[in-house]
Design goal:
Elements (H helix, E strand, L loop, with lengths): L1 E3 L3 E2 L4 E2 H17 L8 H15 L5 E2 L5 E2 L3 E6 L4 H11 L5 E14 L7 E2 L9 E4 L3 E9 L6 H59 L21 H4 L13 H20 L1 H4 L4 H12 L6 E2 L2 E3 L2 E3 L1 E5 L2 E10 L3 H14 L6 E8 L4 H13 L4 E5 L8 E7 L7 E10 L3
Parallel strand pairs: 3-8, 15-16, 16-19
Antiparallel strand pairs: 1-10, 2-9, 4-7, 5-7, 6-7, 7-10, 9-10, 11-14, 12-13, 14-15, 17-18, 18-19
Amino acid sequence: MIIPERTSRLFYQGDLFALTSTRMAELNSRIGQYKNRSLEPYENEKLAKQITEEFNIHPIWLDKANIHQLEPEQCQIDRSGDRMAEFFWRDHFGNRPILASAVRYTFCVPFKGDERLFFHTPSRYSMSGYTGSIQRNILLISYVVFQEEPSGLSRRLKEQFNRDLAQIEDTLSASNSDISGFNREVETRVKGLLADLQQKRTTASCVAEEIGFPIKRRQGEMQHDEALISLPRSEAKFDLEEDPEPFLSERAYDQIISIIDKSGKSMERAARDFAEDNEEKLRHHILVTLNSGSQRGSAETFSRKGKTDIFIEKKNGAIFIAECKIWKGENHFLESVDQLLGYLTWRDTKAALIVFSKNKDFSKVLLAARSAVQSHTNFKGFVHMAKPHESIFKCELISSIDGVRKVVLCVLLFNIIA
């Protein structure tokens, strides 16, 4: 007689729905920890990915190509739970333990995934009592065979194992199906909750910024979790030379441009969260990223002919000025260039124009922007970039207040169509 050895009963220790419900409640609590953190879009994206991975439950995959056996083992089996044995043996020996000599055959099935799925009941399952045990990502299925077994044992053992494994696979298929739905819900829930928090923070920050007073971090507020930030703080810094005259080196200028580029790209990847934002809100996201650097940037700061979108200064002198615009055609683009030139004093020689396109034909926008800047009356030529970029270019313009003074303008274009 071949008897499955009763080690642990599979799919019986708890309900899979209860497990996933508990995990979802833990997820909501985890997201709530970030309600007072000011995270940038690229940080939100990294955070969403990490939390999703943390709360995902990995489906079980059985590695049937590497099934193997353990050496047969002589053992003593207590048959007190076997009614047929009790009827015979207790009739002769009373209520003593019923031990019988047997041989144990153990099949080992390697697997990958979350072993908890072996012990929780899915939405669809069989009432059969599967048994087995888990050891280091291996499912162990054992059978005991008593010595008086007739010939043909190997064939019958293999058939029994294959039947049991097929039933286990069928139940795992139901478990994996349930888990796939749960994992999709986790991803959607994480993105939705973080986006909601981000929107609330952005709205509150815009209101505070419009009030006009300087904004300082609350005392004791938890800092960014460095493990969750894709742009290290050291990378977000830019070097400002200690000169009597306000001055921005090429290296620092390129560092600022790189920070803006990373922030813009993260907004592209989360386009649905920004597609409806106006220029003011889009500027706010860029400005917060720059403020993680070694100097503070400000918004709507007066400079010569008006208030510029992004203004970085050092010792009461501007060293970097930028404008954020939404693409509305070549004429509007040229007006934006004129507006930016109007903000620059004689000492301002480096600036940036950040353009957000909500058009589907972004390639045409890139060509149109290059063509438009070439047609500008102050255009002198394009500036070589060490690292060519499809949607970033530099050019030299003549200052609007000095016919021999040159200004370097970097144009950064981002596509945030949802």
